[in-house]
Amino acid sequence: MITETQSVPFVLRLSAPIAWRSNRAIATKLHGFSMTEQGSALDMFRAAEAATDPQHRRLFLRHAIDEARHARRFRDEALKLMPTSAPREHERRHAIPQNLYATLGTERFLAFVHLSEARAQRQFHVLAQHFSRHPERAPVATLFRELAREEQFHVAYSRHLLGQLFAQEVRARRVRRALARERRALAWAGWKRAGARLGGHFTTLLMAVVFVAVLPLFALILRLSRHGAPPPGWHVASAAPTDHASARRQA
Amino acid sequence: MSTNPTRKVLGISAFFHDAAAAIAIDGHIVAAAEEERFSRDKHDASMPIEAMRFCLVEAGISADELDAVVFYEKPLRKFERLLVDHLEAFPRAFPRFSRALSTWLGKKLWVEADIAKALDVDPERILFMSHHLAHAASAFLPSPFSEAAVLTIDGVGEWATSGIFHGTSNEGRAQLTPLVEQRYPHSLGLLYSALTAYLGFEVNEGEYKVMGLAAYGEPRFRREIEQMAQVAADGTLTLDMRYFAFQRSPTRSFSKQMERLLGPSRPPHAAFDPRSDEGRRYADIARSLQAFTEDAVLAMARHALALTGSRNLCLAGGVALNSVANGRLARELDIDALYVHPAAGDAGGAVGAALYASHVILGVPREAQAGVPYLGPSFSDDAIGRFLDDCRIAHHVEPDLVTLDREVARRLAQGQVGALFQGRAEWGPRALGARSILADPRHQHMTEFVNTKVKYREPFRPFAPAVLADEVHRWFELAPEGRDTFMTPYMLSVARVTPEGQALLPAITHVDGTARVQVVRPTGQGPEGSRFHALLERFREETGVGCLLNTSLNLKGEPLATTPAEAYAIFVRSGLDFLVLGNCLVTKRTLAGESPEAELEYAA
Q: Which positions in chain A touch B91 (Cβ < 8 Å)?
């Protein structure tokens, strides 16, 4: 039997008023959700193409189309709130498929889908509640409410399929292990996301130090030597490589 | 007795935009694909792992059998330009410096190691060639010419922003000699991109929109454009850098000075009507930019022809996708013929790199003949049928393609909009009948309907026609003496629509009375081209018109569909009436009988 831990998204409930405080903040967040849904849609398409079980293919395809629609709805709502908004650079990466079905295998993939959809459903539910308290945000509340309802289907079918596998005695242990492993993987992914953001800030700081400490000297040398960018006009081009040795050079 | 061994070369372009891979076997490209078709991330710039994998599988070889893997740039030369650029702009370049340097130090400088690791090949087999040489090779080596002037124009490669080469081929021995080049920051591509951003469109994506928008305007900002950029009779381009910000900002390519000159820029994503007063101003700016670009390209092309003494011209680089400029070149230059690579942008660099290494470095003899543009993934009718059956998608299988095409033609003639997914996917940005959305061009409302209800894109954007070769002159005024013969199969040049065409085919006639024509011939374009030709024939039987509105099978902001599942997803999310997948027909009516919500029994 598949059991679930229904952890209350306490942090989300607490942080919602700050994180979703303005049109700009909401639009940016919605773009982020759109990217995640887009990535999820692409992975589900891959799964629908790669799976051999017809029932799995059918449900994965249905799921993929739902996710693609969700992505568009999040994006449309974001642009309605703030026409100039766009997803943040690091969030664009979420819109890229990770080939999870091929890399994880059926049990782990289903466990991943089930856990992440359940988490998304809880998130959407909390956010629908949050926005329903603000009448001027009714469209956003409706969006989250409707999508939470659709996520319910994804949670349900993935639980159903896991249950089917669990019922096969030889696979029960694998399913249980897959669920435990994916719970850990999701937590680790969250930690890595935070680390990546911290790393990004640290890199910017490091670059600022290099910029201030190292560049002025070289900029001065460049200006004094007048070896800057070339003037306009046609310049004689360097010869093309015609043998292996010259084609090996990167400069 | 000795035989020449088979030469296998993989070309790669990556890390700017439109990453791609292409594989050449004995100098023939057997597979090529952009990474975006697999990752679904439009203009994906990352290392094209999946495209490389596809190429190797399609060629039926493993990476260790490759004679060479060729990257389309010289990374260290490009890094040098980046450093000089930042030092020149010091101290204003910090925002760009921070982002660019971390990307270079973290990724772009280690291309060789990345490729060696991704393919598990000996680094000694990894070669590098300059960006514009790769472009030039993509234009000349697959062209039908044994001798030609080659002109490349794009944003920027290492240092070069445009280049002139002389391509020759004597008894199969190919040579591509670089003659002259213009260098960063004086770039026609960057000028066009900066104004694309000013007009509120995304750089590397919105240039087509600017080209389409230009038709609505008048060139009344020509003087202002010439204040920002000057072009001499020999094509020498000079940008006044006070109007541009791409040297210092990672996100903004035009300066406040440009806004002072032209007026406020258009906010991205803002609603846009080119017929409103403000919209007209933007359209006039687009028209002025387009006119300037065409004149600059013409001047550079004349210079290339003068330097080489050639009567053939090959064109590549992102600017070569400006089909309006290409049309003018074909009409106004005194040449025999013009060839433009179907994927003239950065993706094409992968083909150029693979062919250059094959013919010039490995000495594979070259045959002067144009290739086919269907080089991407394909799916058998069996695989498609299995997918539809497994997913319980109601469909009709029609083994006889003539009957199927007749049914498709009948539906199109009734005003339905359908999609055709057949054979290998197209190489390059244009849908040429393998991953296409099709409609009847005789209906006036079709342009707006397909833009807004099918593809969800801007209503001002035009649609291209696909036309039977034997009927082309009835509808379109092509360049004299067949100078555009090698461009028209790939939808790479714009021609005037004849008065009869303007009256009878309103959906493919742009507001200025032009169209970007695809001429479809019965043979010579592979099985995909032949099948598309057969469908056009059936449509002519039905309507008396051998021409269809043909646009790419995707939604706004998405790459072309690659797999049946993606095509189906577009079908259900758009206003398409039917979808042809191989020999299967899926219609909205057959789907209507099904309730996808029945799956919700699992939620109980």
A: 211, 215-216, 219
Query: Which of A234, A242, A248, A249 best probes binding to B when mutated, by most B CB atoms within 10 angstroms?
Result: A234
- Comparing alpha-carbon positions, the chain B residue that sits nearest to A243 is B361
CA–CA distance, B145 with B169 (Å, rounded to integer)? 8
Catalytic residue list contains B269: no
Q: Is the pLDDT of residue A1 over 50?
A: no
- Angle formed at CA B287 by CA B284 and CA B291, multiple of 5 degrees: 140
Percent with pLDDT over 90 in chain B: 78
- Whether the CB-CB separation of B533 and B399 falls below 8 Å is answered with no
For every residue of B402-429, which 3-state class applies, written as one string? HHHHHHHHHHHHCCCCEEEECCCCECCC
Per domain, the residue ranges of chain A are 10-200
Segment-wise mean pLDDT, segments of 10 residues, chain B, 604 residues: 76 93 96 92 89 97 96 95 87 81 86 95 96 98 96 96 96 94 96 96 90 95 97 97 89 93 88 84 97 98 98 97 97 96 96 97 88 93 93 93 96 96 96 97 92 85 95 95 91 96 97 96 90 97 97 90 92 92 88 43 35
Q: Helix or strand or coil: residue A233?
A: coil
Tens of pLDDT, residue by residue over B460-493, are: 889 999 999 999 999 999 998 889 999 999 999 9
Give the global pTM.
0.88
DSSP structural state of residue B361:
I
Q: Which of residues 553-572 of B touch A (CB under 8 A)?
A: 563-566, 568-569, 572
> What backbone phi and psi angles, to 5 degrees, belong to B247?
-80, -20
Residue B239 has phi, psi (to 5 degrees) of: -95, 140
What is the pLDDT at residue B343?
95
**The three-state (H, E, C) secondary structure of B139-207, written as one string:** HHCCCCCCEEEEEEECCCCCCEEEEEEEEEEECCEEEEEEEEEEECCCCHHHHHHHHHHHCCCCCCCCH
**ipTM score:** 0.87
Amino acid at B275: R
Domain ranges of chain B: 381-592
What fold, for B381-592? Answer: DHBP synthase (3.90.870)
User: Token digits for B526?
Assistant: 């592979």
B185 touching A, CB under 8 A? yes
Closest CA to A22 of A74, A81, A92, A87: A81
Q: Is 1.20.1260 the CATH number for A10-200?
A: yes
